[in-house]
Design brief:
It is a single chain. This protein is mainly beta. The protein starts with a helix and ends with a strand. It has a single domain, classed as monomeric porin ompg (Porin), CATH 2.40.160.40. The radius of gyration is 19 Å and the shape is globular.
Length: 267
């Protein structure tokens, strides 16, 4: 019964939803795109994650090509037990599009994003050792370069390719340059689907006998994520994401599901 109700709700939403997405996605599920927030726009974004976590984020369009953002994660925000902030200071996001997209060239953007995904581990303790981790479960993208290309194919179709290097979460000795790809496709004026894959080349040096394997396991599969975004009203977008479909994190036995709520406005 619940499944039938959900299918009916989605079908009715496709038929009657009229709100349009105000700007191209500046991020997919996790990877950045060459999209930026238009000048004079701002957004408040809250991502509800596993273990009762929440990740609020504020972004603002300084110019049409320059976007700034800050975020601050809290674990165990929903549920019982004590809440725990990821860090004592917020993470930052900076995006600057150096070339706009033309008929012949894709858009090109450079940026910095220090916000990782999941919990932040400062130190790991067990009976035998104390090790400084200084990292998120899934590392941040750090400094990155991304290109995006869009086509009109029954609604916008965008492809994105980028390189990134994490500059801070390197205590594990893995600081390789990473590669990520993704796409977004408009289904109608209100709905879009996203898909992305990060090779996680900067996070694949763990082995079966590593002492940290009871909290962080990497299978070398990379991270495959997918999502559905709905422009519910003129100022609110809702997003449902399925993370780590490739089961790269061996600790979790199921796909990680997230809900994202985005409120945007122009001033």
């Amino acid at each position: 019964m619940k499944k039938k109700i959900a299918i009916l709700f989605i079908a009715l939403s496709f038929l009657f939803a009229q709100s349009e997405q105000p700007y191209p996605p500046i991020n997919l599920i996790s990877i950045p795109t060459a999209g930026t927030m238009p000048k004079g726009f701002f957004s408040f974004e809250s991502t509800f994650m596993k273990d009762g976590g929440i990740l609020p984020k504020f972004s603002i369009g300084i110019t049409d090509n320059f976007t700034l953002g800050v975020s601050f994660g809290v674990s165990n925000f929903i549920g019982d037990g004590d809440m725990k902030k990821n860090k004592s200071y917020p993470e930052v996001q900076v995006k600057y599009r150096i070339f706009d997209e033309t008929d012949r060239m894709p858009a090109m953007l450079i940026g910095i994003d220090t916000q990782g995904r999941g919990k932040f581990f400062e130190e790991y303790l067990n009976e035998d050792l104390s090790i400084s981790l200084n990292r998120y479960e899934q590392k941040s993208y750090g400094a990155y370069f991304v290109i995006s290309r869009n086509w009109q194919a029954f609604g916008n179709l965008g492809f994105h390719f980028g390189l990134n290097k994490n500059l801070t979460e390197t205590d594990d000795g893995d600081d390789d340059i990473n590669i990520f790809v993704g796409f977004d496709k408009e289904l109608n004026k209100s709905f879009s689907i996203y898909g992305e894959y990060s090779f996680a080349r900067d996070d694949d040096q763990y082995s079966d006998d590593n002492p940290l394997d009871d909290i962080i396991i990497r299978k070398g599969n990379g991270y495959l994520n997918a999502g559905l975004r709905w422009s519910a009203t003129n100022n609110i977008m809702l997003e449902i994401n399925a993370n780590d479909i490739s089961k790269n994190n061996g600790i979790s036995s199921s796909i990680n599901r997230e809900l994202k709520v985005i409120y945007f406005e122009q001033f």
